[in-house]
């Protein structure tokens, strides 16, 4: 369902509404017009407290703004990036879409299913990976973990075994699969988490800083895999957050610039640069957010 009351492109030099994506994307008959629809999503958290006041935090009125009325749409087969400094709200939005957080206000849909009221169906359509929240059972092996998550996603034992073999080869996990997760390096656990997100071949892939903790070779290989094996077919929708501007320019059809929980602009990289008169995506980001280069570095936006 299209989002209501989205800004119209011609009325603002920095549009935040629905815009056309590349013509190469195939629209699957199994997925409605918008693979992801976000309508006026707001999220507030209770204020952080220290000492004994921390005991009262669960009873505090949520007043810290994480998302302030964001609306956007992502079409089937589109690669869509979220760009913003730390604390901008990118991870909060992804966690709402992954059904891990409830929004304070607004509505989110994945493949036509409401993220709050139909969360079980949403989880059947998505693969989710967060660079900071891995959620494995440390005393189980990598293979045992993937089998477990395969069964949660209704894969048969044979189908799960086949996919595990394919993904282990893709992510160079063959020697790590039969070791306990607690013995693996952080980079290897990241690759295992990416394999888990792709295990059931989801139609919508949500990635929060997917190449965090990967070395340069591993990150480059994963980007190549996403572009050539996942996005090229036009069957999987990708929504990802990243601080790596080169990663965004390589993968994303459109970019949403988010600052302090607000959507400032949403369009292709060339259009954002053209409308801001910037020579690079970094310059466009700085001009849109009003940050100086020094502040941008503190916000970890490369």
| Average pLDDT rating | 83
Low-confidence stretches: 1-31, 294-302
In total, the number of strands is 10
How far is the N terminus from the C terminus?
A: 34 Å
Strand numbers in spatial order across the main sheet? 6-7-8-3-9-10
CATH class: Alpha Beta
Tally of separate domains: 1
Helix percentage range: 25-40%
CATH superfamily: P-loop containing nucleotide triphosphate hydrolases
SSE string: EEEHEEHEHHHEHEHEEHHH
Largest sheet: 6 strands, mixed
Shape: globular
Q: Structural class, judged by helices and strands?
A: alpha/beta
How many helical elements? 10
CATH topology: Rossmann fold
CATH architecture classification: 3-Layer(aba) Sandwich
Strand content: 15-25%
Gyration radius, rounded: 19 Å
What's the short story on this structure?
The chain is built from 10 helices and 10 strands. With 302 residues, the protein is of the alpha/beta class. The strands form 2 sheets. A 6-stranded mixed sheet has the order 6-7-8-3-9-10, sandwiched between helices.
